[in-house]
Write a structure and sequence with these properties.
The structure holds two protein chains of two kinds.
Chain A (H helix, E strand, L loop, with lengths): L3 H12 L5 H9 L4 E5 L6 H6 L2 E5 L23 H10 L8 E5 L3 H13 L4 E5 L7 H23 L5 H27 L6 H10 L5 H16 L9 E6 L8 H9 L2 E5 L20 H12 L13 H12 L3 E7 L3 H17 L2 E7 L7 H16 L11
Parallel strand pairs in A: 1-2, 1-3, 3-4, 5-6, 5-7, 7-8
Helix pairs in contact in A: 1-8, 6-11, 7-9, 10-14, 12-13
Chain B lengths: L8 H18 L1 H4 L3 E3 L7 H6 L3 E3 L1 H10 L3 H10 L8 H11 L15 E6 L3 H13 L4 E6 L10 H23 L5 H23 L14 H4 L1 H4 L6 H20 L4 E2 L2 E2 L5 E6 L7 H10 L2 E6 L19 H10 L7 H14 L4 E7 L3 H4 L2 H12 L3 E6 L9 H26 L1
Helix pairs in contact in B: 1-12, 4-6, 5-6, 8-14, 9-12, 13-18, 15-17
Classes of the chains: A alpha/beta, B alpha/beta.
Chain lengths: 396, 429
């Protein structure tokens, strides 16, 4: 087993390799391998794996890529991630990618798929229209058709016909992946000092750019490490981060929140890797239906999923309760419609439920966090000062 | 004192239709009618009327509030309740109006919804908007219609079937349950036949801009022309009559060789013919329009007039395939088209209507329109070698309408068009 520091260092390096070198090497090792870039939030990577490909997360350039060309495509009042994804593509960072998936999360990402099509970037560009109808026989069928379209694109490149066995095997691997990630969060819920949120972030983000087999090995080792009583507890409150599911905050910001006095015991930074709660059925005769059902019935709440029948504010409140968190930090990317439009819904509900929260906005490329750090520090102090004040009980 | 705007007879007709609708809404309970809130893109007007419901369009309330200078206070009210400065101002205007008593643009209180019909067509914010309204109107039934996006510039049978299944198994049964009225396909078919008539007429109307001078402005006046077809009258004889009247008026203008009517009278000289992408600004609508007609610029086509349906490529509602036809209608709305489709459509407009230039009015709080507009503009410029211009404003937030900035930019743009004309004339000589 490798030392934890070594694992974390590797994950950090591979997560932020904007040339996606790992996937490039992987592709070169064997003929017929296909690389498919996917944008936030969620994409069923199982189907790419089963088709002999590798799904690679494209989460923008963060604070590590100067944006020049991308700004020519997007007005100042549009969030930062589409311009940095454009910059990565136009600067050939993703030149070895065969195709791109744009999941239906907002108007900006949807229209970015059109710009990729118009610019003829990649062998295929797929806008993945996730169903907003949650009946398996209606929305579920449509979702399966959407997945079939992706498989058709890949087959046109490598000729691989996906079988039930291959899909079920891939589902098994990703089930294991989600279980291991879940274990890390469960440990951190009680012992958040064993692994910082920055380390967790690097470890999980690494899984979006390497194979699931390699990532599972890393996760298994991390789980073994954090079973031990490592680290030193500090006097910090526990909080949940919500709203940062697409454009990612700079690492400095993720770190600053913890340094300012908050243990982050749950978050939606890498929501796509944790979107499905629990296992997907892996013995099905129709694995696409199993994947579809998991999305319809087992998805985490998200600002991109129509929620009237399962209100998100109560789902987040339950996470806060289950994790034993003291409050919530709503962190929204500037100009992020889904996150910002949800803010009043969450905040009105939390005012009534007595759940403490603060809110701020960030951009992936800002790396001055003094004001946010002070805000978070004051939040932490205020909770510590009034920690005996009762919080309204949330029903399961 | 502001000069009284001159109005065409069709504008007056339209005003009467809208006032009638708002009057009915004010008496919805007395009339025993159920109220259905829904959106313009992908509006299922004929289906709503089949169930004898009255429609409310939150975007229309918002833009009417803006034209009556009420939107600023509504937006501030919403922002006081955690709504961000940076999101759709239609949403904030609507929420703010509701918080201040839900008094509609005509002064009548708008009734609470029995149904929130979420036609999720081409705009993700619609989904968030009705999630917000559902919290405010917990007794309303939310009916979601997921409209697949035309990512590959085509409507596949799978996409249509997905929508038809939603209509059959979710939308219609829920409308029946709320209204107590049984679905009558015969009634729907009759309305769809009238829809087709209106669509034929509005296509002919917008096609008249091929004439020089153009008898109409297809953007600033166009937003009035699309009113009846978009706000619940499509599928009625009233709408057909309105469009016949409008068409005849325009034919008369063509016969007399007249240009468009502006709020200050007839436009005397058509100097520039333009195609505009993006919605207009509503808070300073007249000032905005004035900049154009003062310069002799007429808009010969605009994407905004296609937001409630794209009819100029030949598509029509089809009474022989009622539900399939409603599905195709939803998928054909402008913002549900892919970026390459939007580019092709606008390029066709520039060519067909012999436009001198292309202008983007980029709306700060409308990503459905705005995201991708710079790429579109560049492609159109490269493809057609047509001068392009770019201005920024907002839908209903007056804080984002800077008259002098917009005027300066447009003046520079018109100077460029003028220079180009001179050069082109020299080349011909």
């Amino acid at each position: 087993m490798k030392p934890l520091e070594e694992i974390i260092k590797y994950c950090e390096q591979v997560s932020f390799d904007l040339n996606f070198t790992y996937s490039k090497k992987w592709k070169e090792e064997k003929e017929g391998r296909v690389i498919v870039g996917y944008m936030p939030i969620y994409f069923p990577r199982e189907i790419i794996h089963a088709a002999g490909g590798m799904a690679v997360g494209v989460f923008g350039g963060g604070d590590r890529k100067q944006i020049i060309k991308g700004d020519a495509y997007y007005q100042s009042y549009i969030c930062h991630i589409p311009r940095s994804i454009m910059e990565l593509a136009l600067d050939k960072h993703t030149a070895h990618f065969d195709g791109y998936i744009f999941p239906s999360i907002c108007d900006v990402i949807r229209n970015l798929s059109g710009i990729f099509k118009q610019q003829k970037i990649g062998k295929f560009v797929k806008y993945m229209d996730f169903p907003q109808n949650f009946l398996p026989e209606i929305g579920g069928v449509f979702y399966q058709q959407e997945m079939q379209h992706v498989l058709k694109y890949i087959k046109e490149i490598n000729g691989i016909e996906v079988t039930t066995e291959r899909l079920n095997h891939s589902i098994d691997l990703y089930n294991k992946n989600r279980r291991l990630i879940d274990f890390i969060y469960k440990v951190r819920q009680d012992f958040p000092w064993r692994l910082s949120i920055t380390d967790v972030y690097h470890i999980i983000r690494a899984g979006t750019v390497i194979t699931v087999e390699d990532h599972n090995e890393i996760l298994e080792q991390v789980c073994e490490h954090i079973k031990k009583d490592i680290g030193v507890p500090q006097d910090k409150i526990k909080i949940v981060i919500s709203g940062a599911f697409c454009e990612q905050p700079a690492i400095g910001l993720i770190r600053a929140i913890e340094e300012a006095g908050c243990y982050v015991v749950d978050d939606d930074y890498m929501l796509g890797s944790r979107m499905i709660i629990g296992d997907i059925e892996s013995k099905s005769k129709n694995p696409l239906e199993a994947i579809s059902n998991s999305y319809i019935k087992q998805s985490q709440y998200s600002s991109s999923i129509y929620d009237v029948n399962d209100p998100k504010e109560f789902r987040l409140a339950k996470i806060v309760k289950d994790r034993g968190a003291d409050g919530v930090i709503f962190a929204s990317a500037s100009f992020c419609d889904p996150s910002l439009l949800d803010a009043p819904i969450f905040q009105n509900a939390f005012n009534k439920l007595g759940i403490r929260y603060i809110a701020f906005q960030y951009s992936e490329n800002i790396n001055q966090f003094k004001v946010i750090k002070e805000q978070v520090g004051a939040f932490s102090d205020s909770i510590k000062l009034w920690e005996d004040e009762p919080v309204i009980e949330i029903q399961d | 004192m502001a000069q009284e705007a001159q109005k065409e007879r069709s504008m007056i007709l339209q005003k009467e239709m809208i006032e009638g609708l708002f009057n009915d809404l004010g008496k919805a309970k007395e009339l025993g009618k159920k109220v259905c809130y829904t959106f313009i893109p992908g509006n299922l007007s004929e289906l709503i009327r089949t169930f004898d419901m009255l429609p409310v369009y939150p975007e229309i309330n918002a833009l009417q509030s803006a034209m009556r200078k009420k939107s600023a206070s509504y937006i501030k009210e919403a922002e006081r309740h955690a709504h961000s400065e940076d999101v759709c101002t239609y949403v904030k205007c609507d929420v703010g109006m509701m918080m201040k008593g839900n008094i509609g643009p005509t002064g009548e209180k708008i009734p609470e919804p029995d149904i929130l019909l979420l036609s999720y067509t081409g705009c993700f914010t619609f989904l968030k908007w009705f999630e917000t309204l559902k919290r405010e109107y917990p007794n309303a039934k939310v009916i979601m219609v997921h409209t697949p996006y035309q990512e590959n510039a085509t409507i596949t049978p799978e996409m249509t079937q997905y929508m038809v299944k939603q209509f059959k198994e979710e939308v219609i049964p829920q409308m029946e349950a709320v209204t107590g009225i049984k679905y009558d396909e015969g009634k729907l078919k009759k309305m769809l036949a009238l829809s087709k008539e209106s669509e034929d007429l509005i296509t002919k109307i917008f096609d008249t801009t091929k004439h020089k001078p153009s008898p109409i402005d297809a953007y600033f006046a166009g937003v009035y022309y699309i009113g009846p077809i978009n706000i619940g009258f499509r599928g009625t004889q009233e709408a057909v009559d309105y469009y016949k009247e409008l068409y005849n008026e325009i034919q008369e203008r063509i016969r007399l060789g007249l240009g468009p009517i502006t709020p200050e009278g007839e436009m005397k000289e058509e100097k520039y013919r333009l195609v505009v992408e993006g919605p207009p600004n509503w808070t300073s609508f007249r000032e905005f329009w004035k900049i154009f007609y003062d310069m002799g610029a007429v808009i010969v086509a605009s994407s905004y007039t296609k937001v409630g349906g794209v009819y100029d490529m030949g598509w029509r509602h089809d009474p022989t395939r009622p539900l399939e036809s409603l599905a195709e209608y939803c998928m054909n709305c402008y913002t549900n088209l892919s970026i390459p489709q939007r580019i092709d459509l606008l390029s066709n407009c520039i060519t067909e209507y012999a436009a001198d230039g292309y202008i983007t009015n980029s709306i700060k709080s409308c990503n459905s329109f705005s995201a991708g507009q710079l790429g579109m503009m560049r492609e159109i410029e490269d493809r057609l070698e047509v001068p392009v211009g770019f201005i920024e404003s907002d839908l209903v937030d007056p804080r984002y309408f800077s008259y002098s900035n917009i005027k300066n930019r447009l003046e520079s743009y018109f100077q460029m068009l003028e220079q180009r004309k001179i050069i082109q004339e020299k080349e011909v000589v």
